[in-house]
Amino acid sequence: MISINKFRGTGVALVTPFDKNGNVDFHSLENVINHVIKGGVEYVVSLGTTGETPALTSDEKVAVVKHTIKTANKRVPVVAGIGGNSTQEVINTIKKFDFKGVDAVLSVSPYYNKPNQRGIYEHYKAVAAACPLPIIVYNVPGRTSSNITAETTLKLAHEITNIIAVKEASGNMDQMMQIIKHKPKDFLVISGDDLITLPIIASGGEGVISVIANAFPHEFSEMTRQSLAGNFENARKFHYTLDEFTRLIFADGNPSGVKCVLNMMKITLPYVRLPLVQVNPQVENALKAEYSGYKKTEVHFELR
């Protein structure tokens, strides 16, 4: 029996820090992981979109996951991103992967190929058959150009036992509510969009895999916990503390925005790898102004 409880709440799609020469900065990766765990998140996700995974070599991917497992040191569960637009290549990667210390796999829907719904279903069926761990399906049509419909998600949820959740980043609240309404009891709907985490949980969702929580793990994970407890008055306080930050970190590309904030916090440097670039001066100045205001008014709300 697969336990899904460890994936309720706030997961963090970890950034992959780089030094000024473009090398993976493992010391700063430790800083980020320790920062988010200290901030109270429930689990971490390595090799997601925010980790700039397409720009990492195969050896770097292995090293980043191993370092994440070592640093987390069983304090929180670790999810590893393994996905792609070639089903067989994903399966080959899974068969070679050392899953010691990994608790689940986040697998993005095939991109660029634009498969139909039958192709998406068969892709996940084949990947799940090869995978020894629970799988979180990742639906992000803004990046893949291919939406996983509610019907397909529900078919996967009902028919494939080790597919335990969907990270939903379609932005389509009706689609997400249809999944929540008809899903099995032991299947999670996880927000893939920080700004709509609160309404997704209010509709019956069970958490988030977050970008903003790289920088603000305490506030964002507390917002999620308060939402899950039904304390929406408290949750809204945290939500509106971070809503402008959340808009700004995506204004000129992810993870450029959140790395800019992490640099202000002296947790990582702001470097990203081409084809991504650092945020433009206008966005950087806006983030600096927002951060300055945040530091002046930083409070820990008295929760009831």
Care to describe what's here?
The protein is α/β, with parallel strands linked by helices and 304 residues long. It has a single domain (5-229), classed as Aldolase class I (TIM Barrel), CATH 3.20.20.70. The chain contains twelve helices and eight strands. An eight-stranded parallel sheet has the order 7-6-5-4-3-2-1-8. Helix 11 crosses helix 12 (281-297).
How would you summarize what this structure contains?
This protein has 304 residues and is of the alpha/beta class. It has 12 helices and 8 strands. Residues 299-304 have low confidence and may be disordered.
Total count of strands: 8
What string, H for helix and E for strand, traces the elements in order? EHEHEHEHEHHEHEHEHHHH
Strand order of the largest sheet: 7-6-5-4-3-2-1-8
Quickly name the level 1 CATH class: Alpha Beta
Q: Please state the CA-atom Rg, rounded to the nearest Å.
A: 18 Å
CATH H-tier superfamily: Aldolase class I
